[in-house]
Structures are given as C-alpha cells and as structure tokens.
DNA sequence: TTGATCTATCGGGATATAAAGATATAATAA
DNA sequence: TTATTATATCTTTATATCCCGATAGATCAA
C-alpha cells in the first residue's frame, strides 16, 4: 500500500474512467471471445477503443494503475486482460477513512 | 467534490505530511499566541518551518489543499491559519468506498 | 509615516507526466 | 516459414508540476 503511488495513478481523468468502466465491464465493453470479462477482465484493445486514445498511451495507463495495485492482470496467449483489484480498493477506502 | 482535483492535491509527499501533521497539531507545532490550533488552525510559518521548504512553496501547497477542499482557512490580522476540513475528508472516504 | 512581519503571487529553471508514432516482442494463423 | 494480431516499450514533443527567489499586499508596531 503506497498511498502516494495510488494518488498519482488516480490523478488522471481517463484512468479514473477506466476504473469506473471496469466496475460493470459488460455494460461498457463489447463481448469477448476469450472469457467472461467479470472473471478474467477486459482486454487492452477494448479499453483502448473506449478511451479513444492511442494504444501505447492506454497500455501505459493500465500499467500505471497496475503498479499502484488498483488493477490485476491476466495474460492468455496474445491477450492481456485487466480487471479491478477490489481488495486493494477496499484497503484504500480504509486508509482514507482511518489514516488520512 | 472534485475527485480529480483532490487526487492531484494528494499526489505529493509533503502535502500528505501536512494533512497528517494537522491531525494532531499540538503534537507537531509550537504553541501559538493567536489562538488554539485545534480550533483556528496552524499558521503558515509554523507549517513552513516543519516542512523545511520555502515560504512560497508551502503557501502554494496550502492553497492547493484548500482549493481541493481538504483544508479550511481562517485569517486574522496578518496571520493565516489552516486546519483540516474533516467534513470533506469524510466525503472523500465515502466517495472512495462507494463510487471509486 | 516608516519599518517590520506574515502571507500571497509572479516568473523561471528543473523535472515529471501526457500522449503520440515507431518499433519490438510474443503468440497465433496461414 | 511468413504474415498477422495483441500488447509492451522506446523516443520524442508538449504540457504540467515542483520548488525556488523576488516581489507585492496587508497588517501591526513604533
């Protein structure tokens, strides 16, 4: 739990949106062949299309969120799936409530 | 409540420290003549001395935290006192818990 | 009024972040 | 093997943030 790293990761409109979209992935992204987006996450290209930014930028954003611990990664074949790390988000809420 | 503005304000080690020091001001700052630091806040020069940064930098940091709604200001004569806005911090905790 | 003190603001150089295109890597398909 | 697809990394330009010194306001003391 590195609060500074987390707050930096949250200091960007698009990254906040990505976290929000991933709350209800089936509502914001098209169906995937690879597997249930609730379980394995959403692949980078779907997130990129939704964000309307370049592939490299979105890839960087996802890594930023992952390094902060807010997203989990699952790799299968040539795909990379990202989903929320609800555990970490709960820890963050607890930190803000008790320590900030 | 502007989450992006708040997260940007929290994306700095010194600003996080200032928020922490102001949780127990009498523990971290010398006594003030102007009034009880719990009630009116701590003056800029005390915070500056503790932070070990220039006066202009600390003044900017305090404004950043205030614009985000995390600090409250009280002006008396030539002094400016800052204290935590516990209400806003509670709102932030609730936001993270329910909306992030 | 003059001088001292406290704080805010301005301007600037250094560093970090934003966001893109180009390229590399790795897996799949033909 | 070669071509294609998905993602990551590299490089670069533009913008934002960090942090300072200098200066400006505002208040208080003499």
From TrEMBL, chains A, B:
GO terms for molecular function: DNA binding; DNA-binding transcription factor activity. It comes from the Bacteria. Keywords: DNA-binding, Transcription, Transcription regulation. SMART domains: HTH_ARSR. Pfam families: HTH_IclR. Residues 1-100 form the HTH arsR-type domain. InterPro entries: ArsR-like_HTH, HTH_ArsR_DNA-bd_dom, HTH_MetalResp_TranReg, Tscrpt_reg_IclR_N, WH-like_DNA-bd_sf, WH_DNA-bd_sf. PANTHER family: TRANSCRIPTIONAL REGULATOR, ARSR FAMILY, TRANSCRIPTIONAL REPRESSOR SDPR. This is Transcriptional regulator. It comes from Brevibacillus borstelensis AK1.
């Amino acid at each position: 739990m590195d609060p500074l790293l987390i707050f930096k990761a949250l200091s960007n409109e698009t990254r906040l949106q990505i976290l929000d979209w991933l709350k209800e992935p089936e509502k914001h992204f098209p169906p995937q062949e690879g597997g249930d987006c609730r379980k394995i996450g959403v692949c980078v290209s779907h997130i990129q299309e939704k964000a309307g930014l370049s592939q490299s930028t979105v890839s960087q954003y996802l890594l930023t969120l992952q390094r902060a611990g807010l997203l989990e990664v699952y790799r299968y074949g040539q795909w990379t799936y990202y989903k929320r790390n609800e555990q970490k988000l709960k820890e963050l809420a607890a930190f803000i409530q008790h320590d900030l």
